Amino acid sequence: MKRSSIKDIAKLAGVSVATVSYVLNRKEGQRISEETRKKIFEIAETINYTPNKIAKSLKTNKTKLLGLIVADISNEFYSLMARNLEDKALKLGYTLIIGSSDENAEKFKKLTELFSQQQVDGMIVAPVAGSEKTLENLMHIKYPVVTIDRYLKGVTVPGITINNQEIAENTTSLLLNKNFDKIIYIGYETELPHLLDRQHGFEKAVHASKKTVEIRHILVGLENIAEEVHSQLENTLGKSPENTALYFSSNKLAVAGLSYLVKNNIKVPEQVSVIAFDETETYHLFPTEITYIQQPIEAMAEEAIKLLDGQINNYTATEKRVTLSAKLIAKASFK
Amino acid sequence: MKRSSIKDIAKLAGVSVATVSYVLNRKEGQRISEETRKKIFEIAETINYTPNKIAKSLKTNKTKLLGLIVADISNEFYSLMARNLEDKALKLGYTLIIGSSDENAEKFKKLTELFSQQQVDGMIVAPVAGSEKTLENLMHIKYPVVTIDRYLKGVTVPGITINNQEIAENTTSLLLNKNFDKIIYIGYETELPHLLDRQHGFEKAVHASKKTVEIRHILVGLENIAEEVHSQLENTLGKSPENTALYFSSNKLAVAGLSYLVKNNIKVPEQVSVIAFDETETYHLFPTEITYIQQPIEAMAEEAIKLLDGQINNYTATEKRVTLSAKLIAKASFK
DNA sequence: CTGAAAGCGCTTACAG
DNA sequence: CTGAAAGCGCTTACAG
């Protein structure tokens, strides 16, 4: 696979490589005779020339490559985010290189190093617990970085989040205004601030409320979600609950919980009301339409790319954080 | 963001850049005094040196970048495939750059051009209808390419497929051996050979059978799957079917069909039996466990990377096609 | 209107 | 054991 270069064109056209470069890049300032232009384009066409962006990158110090680090690209939320980022990036001429951190700080660090060696112009990352140092180092060398979905305490990286605590608080208040006997919060055992925000929002609403309602928490690890949720729901909710509400703080948790409800033939919303953070196509197979909190993924992607591109080209300050609003989509699972 | 280079290290260490390069790359042949080695490593460490792979690439003609083109990275099948490819690629030191073609031949072509300009060492592609020419061109310039999931008629690109026709035929035979009154095949209106293979497998089994059973086809476009499947199932299956089998040729179709069953309270397998091609987490919210055909995604990813790496390094012939076997996972949806 | 030349950050055959 | 030098394929200020 021998590719033709600018040099080949120059030789064939009997001009210098500089001229070829000028023509191919359609620079305005330099005026080159229509004749040579035409000849150069024709030759480029016939020898099937494709520019070597690597060579260009070396000179211009821009690769037009963006690194994306998510926890796991096969996770629905992240693959949808990746898709949106891809589209927005492409519009500005960037392509995405992707890595999954598996919630592992060491792997996260390795990926940032790898991407930095590949000279990506910037990175969009969903940082994992324990990766504060890695982010700080990137900030320190002024590497353009934007966080999405998550953020880390004590590190001021520009990024996009949603109003996790607020929306959790508001939806929990809605729940409290109904007269449930019991409300169960199903969340993660985690240190990730954005997930804790959801929990704190829930708790804040509970404390502010005058209702006497039994509150229970189910917290599970990031693995074996289904099994853990099932067994804990069995303890906390039982097989024939009445007048209870379930608050799932992620779509994965919700799916696990809903499958418990299906298996035990528990009726929604007759016996149990359900609200979930995040959506998923999976809800469509549940007999009742699920009330969920919708993240503005497209807007998040758009803002992330904009913020990153701004940093890369020095438009934007590097401590800008953008908070977007999630939205409650009310459906029948809630009574 | 000024990065330090090999030159900086050389200057600081008082040696040549050649020496630094040798040390950092731990070349065996060249023996360099332990003293200078140590000094160079220390300096590299203190000035926080990271190699510029772009520069290396220009010289070595290897970027360690692989292009992945799928129809849509937010599609569950492809994001899972991407994840597996990512892992396998990383083991060989490659990173993945990703693009979604949206089943659009023009966009597919654009992505191959973009990736080729980025000098990816090879591409893993799920070709779209009408992209024969694009693939041929890549083959012609001997660009390392491997197809996954799909293939195209008349183009001999190395690639990985599964035994679509055979597994479809076998599972259909199973269906025919039961005494259903009616069997409905739900598939796509498409020219994509791998999907037609599934349909042909179904039809082959039907023709070979001596049973008299009513056979119906539902073929839908790639968009508005849910609506189309719903309305056509309403016509073909009705609201209270008996002794009927549904054969879905993809997980998306299956989800659309299952949601119809849920909505109309049709019991599986009492009234209707179900078999689906491909799995999805979504099945878990259906009251009955779904019988499905499982693609060996991990093995496909592994073979794809192996095949591509082989081409890149000239181990493998460039017309090798690998066919892996899908497996029927029998569950309760089938009686 | 066009070209010679330097340089981006590396690698590597060659010489000593 | 180490270095000078060429070169990968581009871009771009400068000169003419």
UniProtKB/TrEMBL annotation, chains A, B:
GO terms of molecular function: DNA-binding transcription factor activity; transcription cis-regulatory region binding
Annotated Gene3D superfamilies: 3.40.50.2300, lambda repressor-like DNA-binding domains
Stored SUPFAM superfamilies: lambda repressor-like DNA-binding domains, Periplasmic binding protein-like I
Keyword annotations: DNA-binding, Repressor, Transcription, Transcription regulation
Keyword Amino-acid biosynthesis appears in the UniProt entry: no
SMART domains the UniProt entry points to: HTH_LACI
PROSITE patterns (UniProt xref): HTH_LACI_1, HTH_LACI_2
InterPro entries: HTH_LacI, LacI/GalR-like_sensor, Lambda_DNA-bd_dom_sf, Peripla_BP_I
Record's protein name: LacI family transcriptional regulator
Domain HTH lacI-type, residue spans: 4-60
